[in-house]
Design a protein that fits this description.
Nitrilase/N-carbamoyl-D-aminoacid amidohydrolase; Rossmann fold; 2 domains; 8-stranded mixed beta sheet; 6-stranded mixed beta sheet; 20 strands; binds nicotinic acid adenine dinucleotide; binds adenosine-5'-triphosphate; binds glutamine; Glutamine-dependent NAD(+) synthetase; NAD/GMP_synthase; Nitrilase/CN_hydratase_CS
Length: 581
């Protein structure tokens, strides 16, 4: 057996910022070196950020990634870090350095081993995810080799993210190659409960690979995706050895006791048990095991509970969208209702209350408590607020053009949207849109009104969860940041006297259960009724959901927390005559 101290760099790259990500690679490698690590593993496509979407279709981008990798290898050596091997993800091109049986020049979701100023091994993701938020057959061709590098006597293999999620492939090849450790760079987006799935997956694959497994995941927000980190190390028996925190950057350093490798350097094909052949490529960096050294106990970070986890995901999603898009501040309409209250609270936790601007915009139908509750929230959290009554603007508009019924109601929401966008233009604030997933599902928002804005923090949060998150957040600090009345009052859009959400929608508890079955589970009408939903309600809600597709397409992006968000996860035609019969 031999000892190896590995460092998993759970960091937050920025898509397209190749120079900034390279700086981060150097800085975190230095930290790993200072921590006495013998190997440092960065995440999938760390140099370019992930996902880069159609950027990979540009030759200039792929060229920059390849050049950036070579430059990073040279820079590590120039800065005295060349003896610490670095595994890092980037974008490469097929057939550039080796044959992989694919058309020349197609992009690869690649990873490389950097050592002593050079790229000493390369690989590319073999299994390309093409479901949910992933479109990787659009972008990449699959890799068909497994690098195994000997480090202080231990054979270390490299597989990439989805390679763990499918049977066979690099995991089987790692077993065939007799690897002593499988390291896996990942960019695995957050979904509720996914941490448990990942741990079980890593434990199982370690057994299949016949070796310990080190899983390094990205952290941070990227448009609608949130990466939660939660990097981990499992033993060959599937026992948890070490685990990093969730939603936080962290260098996870772990001492491992691993078997010594045997076998000669060179290439050989193995049956990957998924109908393909993978070429194992062995290289030797250092054959001699290290002399024994004292090993500190491994770090196992505590898990957040389910509600805390979702809340932290939303906070990180907002923080990174704001920061990575160069905003200093956000603005939103604060109505005294729970959706805007929770959105403001998440924003304050993400970027600080002094950078959260709220506008109270009472209309002639606003209740007294709507202003009172909004003012109380502002006071408790120290937000920047202003009051802009909309009655005169609405009156002026109605003098010019006669509007009645829904058209008149929607005008109020539109005037508010216009005021927020005007203040955004004037002061550079990012407008936060406050709609929740139940509203998005049913089209319960006004186009160019309360659906206007740049980022929608709770768009993937059903109304029932909006209340749960608000109650949970109120237990976390004193005074509770959200006035109790905003949580307990009956939801109302206040667009006409005495209006209640339940005039147009069923109770949210009933609605959310049905939406979960229809939207998340994709159940048809007959299945929904068989599952116990009221047939009349099923007909009504399905119709609302189906005919609101055009509205959702125009809605701003927002953080995904569910297995199926409105966005990349669920793509339906707008022009669509299919109805669940
Ligand atoms: N297929 C399609 N493709 C593209 N555009 C399409 C379209 N179908 C209609 N449209 C357009 O959409 C318009 C209708 O949409 P829109 O103007 O939004 O209006 P609409 O959906 O008719 O009404 C808004 C609903 O949201 C509720 N609301 C509003 C504001 C806040 C809240 C709240 O919860 O706080 C609730 C309100 O009570 C009402 O039930 C049509 O006049 C048409 O211009
Ligand atoms: N009086 C108001 N002042 C400022 N903004 C408002 C006002 N009324 C509505 N808005 C904006 O329009 C959005 C939609 O209104 P809506 O009433 O649905 O949301 P809410 O009040 O936050 O929550 P709820 O639906 O639980 O009442 C609000 O979240 C808020 O951003
Ligand atoms: N980047 C990837 O290959 C991610 C795919 C994988 N199924 C995950 O969600 O973790």
């Amino acid at each position: 057996m031999a000892q190896l101290r590995i460092a998993l760099a759970q960091t937050n790259p920025v898509v397209g910022d190749l120079a900034g990500n390279a700086d981060k690679l150097i800085a975190w490698t230095r930290r790993a070196a200072d921590g006495g690590a013998h190997l440092v593993v960065f995440t999938e496509m760390f140099l370019t950020g992930y996902p880069v979407e159609d950027l990979v279709l540009r030759t200039s981008f792929v060229d920059a990634s390849i050049a950036g990798l070579d430059a990073a290898a040279a820079r590590l050596a120039a800065e005295g870090l060349g003896d610490l091997p670095v595994v890092v993800g980037y974008v490469d091109r097929a057939n550039r350095t080796h044959r992989i049986g694919q058309p020349k020049g197609a992009p690869l979701d690649a990873a490389a081993v950097l050592y002593q100023g050079r790229v000493v091994a390369r690989t590319a993701k073999h299994h390309l995810p093409n479901y949910g938020v992933f479109d990787e057959y659009r972008y990449f061709v699959r890799g068909d080799r497994l690098p195994v590098f000997r480090l202080h006597g231990v054979d270390v293999a490299v597989a990439i993210c989805e390679d763990l999620w499918q049977e066979g492939g690099p995991v089987s090849a790692a077993r065939a190659a007799g690897a002593g450790l499988l390291v896996v760079p990942n960019a695995s987006p957050y979904e509720m409960d996914k941490d448990d799935v990942r741990f079980a997956l890593c434990a199982r694959r370690a057994g299949e690979a016949g070796c310990a497994l080190a899983y390094a995941n990205q952290v941070g927000g990227q448009d609608e995706l949130i990466f939660d980190g939660d990097s981990l190390v499992v033993s060959v028996d599937g026992e948890l050895v070490a685990r990093a925190g969730q939603f936080t950057e962290e260098l996870l350093i772990t001492n491992l006791e691993l078997p010594l490798g045997s076998g000669e350097p060179g290439e050989f094909p193995v049956d990957a048990l998924d109908g393909t052949t993978i070429t194992v490529e062995r290289v030797v960096l250092s054959a001699e095991p290290l002399a024994a050294y004292p090993a500190e106990p491994p770090v196992v970070a505590e898990r957040l509970d389910d509600t805390a986890e979702v809340y932290q995901a939303l906070v990180l999603g907002v923080r990174d969208y704001v920061a990575k898009n160069g905003f200093q501040s956000v603005i939103l309409g604060l109505s005294g209702g729970i959706d805007s209250a929770l959105t403001a609270t998440i924003a304050a936790d993400a970027i600080g209350p002094d950078r959260v601007h709220v506008v109270l915009m009472p209309s002639r139908y606003s209740s007294d408590h709507s202003v009172g509750d909004a003012e109380e929230l502002v006071r408790r959290q120290g937000l920047r607020s202003r009051v802009a009554p909309i009655a005169d603007i609405v009156n002026a508009f109605e003098k010019e053009i006669e509007l009645t019924g829904l058209a008149a109601e929607n005008l109020q929401a539109r005037v508010r949207g216009m005021l927020l966008m005007s203040l955004s233009n004037q002061h550079g604030h990012l407008v936060l849109t406050t709609g929740n997933k139940s509203e998005l599902a049913t089209g319960y928002s006004t186009l160019y009104g309360d659906s206007a804005g740049g980022f929608a923090p709770i768009k993937d949060v059903p109304k029932s969860l909006v209340w749960e998150l608000s109650r949970w957040r109120n237990t976390q600090s004193t005074p509770p940041p959200i006035p109790e009345n905003s949580i307990t009052k009956e939801p109302s859009a206040e667009l006409r006297p005495g209006q209640r959400d339940t005039d147009s929608l069923p109770e949210y508890a009933v609605l959310d259960r049905l939406l979960d079955d229809y939207v998340e589970q994709d159940r048809g009408r007959a299945e929904l009724i068989a599952a116990g939903h009221d047939p009349e309600l099923v007909t009504r809600v399905i119709r609302l959901v189906d005919t609101a597709e055009y509205k959702r397409r125009q809605y701003p992006p927002g953080p995904k927390i569910s297995p199926k968000n409105f966005g990349r996860d669920r793509r339906l035609p707008i022009t669509n005559r299919w109805r669940e019969g």
